[in-house]
């Protein structure tokens, strides 16, 4: 087979994978196709250029296979494509599992669909056929299509029956776009029936979010459907001119400006209170734990009312973290919250901020000269080690064939204390840990790297039937479990995690899970402490050198899924004795 034919067939298989497995990510695609991740990314980019898919973070989503896709809609999808994608990606962060949301039929709101694929139990009210079909692919969602008519070009609009139906609904958040926007005229549409429908959505929504690319600013269409003060949050792209930003700061809109690799939030109300610009450099956007940390920081910043937040993604990369630090230093921010993985980069990052005169809070990975916030690493690890030891003593009579340690060398000595804490907690129960039964592996801080390392280890331990696994974080725990399942050796392992993130809590609810528990750090509450700590520093108030998050151990026992107070018998031993 020629090289071109091989490429053609591989891309056909890739499209089939995306059709059969919406949301499948690059590492899994590479595994299924037996090619490198770089090859997959090149194929995704080529297919996106050809218009056969839309490139999204970590993978792609199909743009064809839909009979309902009208030519007019497909044409509008390509207008301001990059800007709409960036806006939709960040607006989707406002949607949580179980929400009831209203979505209009705009192409900008449609682009939210790929970013909602991991949400469950959504109730979606929409007049958009395309987005309704996309979100209906998740069987846990309930999709309510508003009745109405189709224009000759296939674009849906809704009639007065739909508006009457809306009156009886209760919507948490309505997401809408528009044909034009000015602060004076508000949000406007070309079609009167479309405007009436959006007015109906606003009337029954607790909160209204507008997704408006910068090309629509300064334009006024035929029919207004919302005043500026009726919209709580406006998302736009980074091509918005500084003059428009200044005008919007005279309104009470929460404004989010979406760039390719970062996002800036502005809270322009209460002008008499001093506003601060705070940067948050997040660990990575492909893992639940740092995503939950970032969401909590955004919520707390908005609640404070006087913080403009600039968010960037360190991508688990030392080099990227240094580039982000350069950007933040150049922006002359008032303070930076730094969450990065590589201890070696800490001194360089701190030097950049010190020269710029910017105070720093370091999250979970300490940096000399920064105020530390986050995990009490040793204590968090020790709780999990004790729980693992009790399980081994109860289920395996205190004996095991192999202990596998999934660590993260880049994080440095202090985070390594969570591994040492697990080892010490384990030994405190089973009393002896033979050196020849311990195997240390690099978790890479991701489930994919952990899975690969665990697969290789299990293949070299074909006769081991009692394998205990301690982990640097929950990504490592998920990777270890996935590897054991792939080799049909799930019953051979017992695993404890660190973090108790969303995925692990779901796993802990599964009967007879081999992840028997995880120490919870409560990332969804980090912002509640980080933002007040930042404001204290900015106000010149004294703060301690280290502020620790609370820890609890969440066991897999069905009756103990909810967090138990640290140190109680239920927290460390439920389900094991």
Which SSEs are present, and which pair or pack?
Elements lengths: L2 H18 L5 H8 L3 H13 L3 E4 L2 E4 L8 H7 L3 H11 L8 E4 L3 H4 L12 E4 L2 H8 L5 E4 L2 E3 L5 E3 L1 H7 L4 E6 L3 E3 L3 E4 L2 H13 E7 L11 E4 L6 E5 L4 H7 L5 E5 L3 E5 L9 E7 L5 H17 L2 E7 L4 H13 L4 E4 L4 H14 L3 E4 L7 E4 L2 H19 L6 E6 L5 H18 L7 E5 L4 H13 L7 E5 L2 H13 L6 E7 L2 H7 L6 E6 L5 H13 L7 E3 L3 E4 L13 H5 L4
Parallel strand pairs: 3-4, 3-8, 4-5, 8-11, 11-13, 13-14, 16-17, 16-18, 18-19, 19-20, 20-26, 21-22, 21-23, 23-24, 24-25
Antiparallel strand pairs: 1-2, 6-7, 9-10, 10-12, 14-15, 15-17, 25-27
Helix pairs in contact: 2-3, 8-9, 11-19, 12-13, 14-15, 16-17
Describe this structure in words.
The protein has 20 helices and 27 strands. The longest helix is centred in the C-terminal third of the chain and has 19 residues, at 377-395. The strands form 5 sheets. Strands 5-4-3-8-11-13-14-15-17-16-18-19-20-26 form a 14-stranded mixed sheet, with helices on both faces. It has a 6-stranded mixed sheet with strand order 22-21-23-24-25-27, with helices on both faces. It folds into 4 domains: 3-62, Orthogonal Bundle (Arc Repressor Mutant, subunit A); 71-258, Rossmann fold; 262-375 and 527-532, Response regulator (Rossmann fold, 3-Layer(aba) Sandwich); 377-520 and 546-573, Rossmann fold (3-Layer(aba) Sandwich), CATH 3.40.50. The protein has 577 residues and is of the alpha/beta class. It starts with a helix and ends with a helix.
């Amino acid at each position: 087979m020629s090289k071109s034919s091989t490429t053609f067939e591989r891309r056909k298989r890739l499209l089939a994978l995306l059709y059969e497995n919406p949301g499948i990510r690059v590492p899994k695609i590479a595994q299924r196709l037996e090619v490198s991740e770089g090859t997959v990314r090149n194929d995704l980019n080529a297919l996106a250029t050809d218009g056969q898919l839309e490139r999204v973070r970590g993978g792609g989503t199909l743009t064809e296979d839909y009979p309902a896709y009208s030519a007019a809609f497909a044409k509008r999808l390509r207008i301001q494509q990059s800007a709409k994608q960036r806006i939709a990606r960040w607006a989707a962060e406002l949607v949580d599992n179980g929400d009831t949301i209203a979505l209009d039929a705009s192409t900008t709101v449609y682009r939210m669909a790929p970013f909602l694929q991991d949400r469950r139990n959504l109730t979606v009210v929409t007049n958009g056929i395309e987005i309704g079909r996309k979100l209906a692919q998740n069987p846990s969602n309930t999709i309510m299509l508003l009745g109405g008519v189709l224009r000759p070009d296939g674009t849906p609009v809704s009639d007065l029956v739909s508006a009457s139906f809306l009156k009886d609904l209760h919507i948490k958040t309505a997401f809408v776009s528009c044909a034009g926007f000015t602060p004076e005229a508000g949000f406007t549409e070309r079609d009167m029936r479309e405007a009436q429908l959006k007015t109906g959505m606003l009337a029954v929504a607790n909160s209204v979010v507008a997704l408006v690319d910068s090309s629509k600013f300064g334009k006024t269409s035929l029919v207004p459907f919302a005043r500026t003060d009726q919209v709580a949050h406006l998302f736009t792209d980074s091509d918005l001119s500084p003059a428009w930003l200044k005008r919007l700061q005279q309104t009470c809109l929460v404004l989010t400006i979406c760039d390719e690799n970062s996002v800036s939030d502005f809270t322009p109300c209460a002008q008499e209170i001093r506003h601060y610009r705070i940067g948050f450099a997040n660990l990575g956007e492909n893992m639940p734990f740092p995503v939950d940390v970032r969401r909590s920081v955004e919520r707390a910043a908005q609640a404070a009312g006087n913080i403009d937040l600039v968010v960037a993604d360190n991508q688990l990369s030392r080099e990227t973290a240094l580039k982000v630090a350069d950007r933040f230093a150049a922006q002359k921010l008032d303070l930076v919250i730094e969450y990065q993985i590589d201890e070696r980069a800490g001194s360089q990052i701190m030097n950049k901020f010190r020269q710029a005169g910017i105070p720093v809070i370091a999250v979970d990975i300490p940096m000399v000269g920064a105020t530390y916030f986050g995990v009490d690493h040793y204590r968090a690890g020790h709780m999990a080690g004790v729980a693992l030891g009790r399980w081994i003593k109860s289920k395996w009579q205190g004996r095991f064939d192999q202990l596998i340690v999934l660590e993260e060398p880049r994080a440095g000595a202090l985070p390594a204390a969570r591994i040492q804490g697990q080892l010490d907690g384990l030994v405190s129960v089973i009393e002896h840990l033979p050196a020849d039964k311990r195997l240390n592996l690099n978790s890479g801080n991701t489930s994919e790297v952990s899975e690969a390392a665990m697969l290789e280890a299990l293949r070299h331990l074909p006769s081991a039937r009692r394998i205990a696994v301690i982990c640097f974080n929950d990504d490592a725990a998920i990777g270890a479990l996935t590897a054991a399942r792939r080799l049909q050796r799930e019953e051979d392992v017992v695993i404890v995690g660190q973090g108790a993130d969303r995925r692990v809590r779901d796993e802990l609810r599964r009967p007879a899970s081999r992840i028997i528990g995880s120490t919870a750090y409560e990332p969804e509450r980090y912002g509640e402490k980080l933002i007040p700590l930042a404001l204290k520093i900015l106000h010149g108030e004294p703060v301690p050198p280290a502020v620790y998050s609370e820890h609890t151990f969440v066991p897999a026992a069905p009756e103990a899924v909810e967090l138990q107070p640290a140190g109680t018998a239920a927290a460390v031993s439920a389900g094991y004795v």
